[in-house]
Amino acid sequence: MPSYPKTQALMERGCDFLGTEYAILCGAMSWVSERNLVSAISNAGGFGVIACGAMTPELLDREIAGTKELTSKPFGVNLISMHPQMFELIEVCGRHGVGHVVLAGGIPPKGSVEAIKGHGAKVIVFAPTLALARKLLRAGGDALVIEGMEAGGHIGPVSTSVLAQEFLPALKDEHLVFVAGGIGRGEAIAGYLEMGAVGAQLGTRFACASESIAHPDFKKAFFRANARDAVASVQLDARLPVIPVRALKNKGTEEFTAKQREVGLLLDQGSVDMGEAQLRIEHFWAGALRRAVIDGDIENGSLMAGQSVGMVTREEPVAQIVATLMRESEDALGRR
Ligand SMILES: Cc1cc2nc3c(=O)[nH]c(=O)nc-3n(C[C@H](O)[C@H](O)[C@H](O)COP(=O)(O)O)c2cc1C
């Protein structure tokens, strides 16, 4: 595998933690991050992460087994905190000896970190604030991903550049921090590494790789889009806290607004409770993403994409994308 000494020196702690050549993670993307993309990333020296999303334990079991057939390199599994079968999913990961579990989508449920570590796996957490990051790391998180609002999918309100300035100086000496959101080129990776990150996580840049099973029309929509087309959804009803989702503008994004109105109305009528209402909003996106990624319905489906989408212009093999990112980072570090 090609070497990029300056970049790899700065990535050393990240690589040791992940067990990889390069500390580049492909963030889990529901429907996209399945065995083909995940194994391709890991085989290219990066770290692939299966997106469990709403999968049942049986489906996750099959996906992990399928991924292991395609790679002998380390990969992780991303579990969403609100999944009702979280502990069964952790068991599945444990049975397969998955080395790293990423807990996403909110505060990890009580006992989940301990359950994962009980299987000998490492836990990667997300945190939107420094205080929460410290708490999760104290509670057993082995590494942290900070993800700015430039990212595709569910996002927080703060940009990657600001999160990096807040979190990295405070945590870099004692903790492992990976930076995500809006990274499309290696120069940006180099910048965050110099600030103390141990690696980077990208999603959008890998979503349309040759090995990605995303529908050709989904990929074409990415190739056509500019940064300004990847917009964050807005919350309509104060009672329905919508976690904003960044996706390419289409009819589906308008339908999401309509969906919020509809669910708000059901709440007014008392025909659904708050939990159910919030679930319906979340389910809208889960189903809509599948429609776009798998069925290629780029009108009504959800085209989750980050602002780096403008830098995704053609289908390329994962290994080529990884090599480009590493070379760009190495060149940038060489100039300094
Ligand atoms: C299509 C798509 C689906 C995603 N689905 C998930 C998911 O299921 N779970 C998760 O934790 N993050 C998800 N993400 C976020 C990615 O894991 C990653 O952190 C993000 O894409 C990084 O920012 P970038 O898009 O600017 O590279 C998704 C992103 C995209 C583009």
Please state how the strands of the largest beta sheet are arranged side by side: 1-2-3-4-5-6-8-9
User: Into which percentage range does the β-strand content fall?
Assistant: 5-15%
**Overall pLDDT confidence:** 95
User: Kindly, what is the distance between the CA atoms of the first and last residues, rounded to a whole number of angstroms?
Assistant: 25 Å
Estimated radius of gyration:
19 Å
Bound molecules: flavin mononucleotide
DSSP strand count: 11
User: Low-confidence parts lasting 5 or more residues at pLDDT below 50?
Assistant: none
Fraction of residues in helices? Answer: 40-55%
Shape: globular
The run of helices and strands is: HHEHEHEHEHEHEEHEHEHHEEHHH
Number of helices: 14
Helix-strand category: alpha/beta
Largest sheet: 8 strands, parallel, barrel
Features:
14 helices; binds flavin mononucleotide; single chain; 46% helix; 336 residues; alpha/beta
Question: Could you explain the architecture of this structure?
Answer:
Helix 3 (35-43) packs parallel to helix 4 (57-70). The model has no long low-confidence stretch (mean pLDDT 95). The chain is globular, with a radius of gyration of 19 Å. Strand 1 (24-26), helix 3 (35-43) and strand 2 (47-51) form a beta-alpha-beta unit. By secondary structure, it is α/β, with parallel strands linked by helices. The protein has an eight-stranded parallel β-barrel with strand order 1-2-3-4-5-6-8-9, surrounded by seven helices. A three-stranded antiparallel β-sheet has the order 7-11-10, with no helix packed on it. It has helices at residues 5-10, 12-18, 35-43, 57-70, 86-96, 112-118, 130-138, 160-171, 186-194, 204-207, 216-224, 251-269, 274-293, 318-335, and strands at 24-26, 47-51, 75-80, 100-104, 122-126, 143-147, 153-154, 177-180, 199-202, 230-232, 245-248. 46% of the residues lie in helices and 14% in strands. The site of flavin mononucleotide (FMN) has 28 residues, from strand 9 and helix 10.
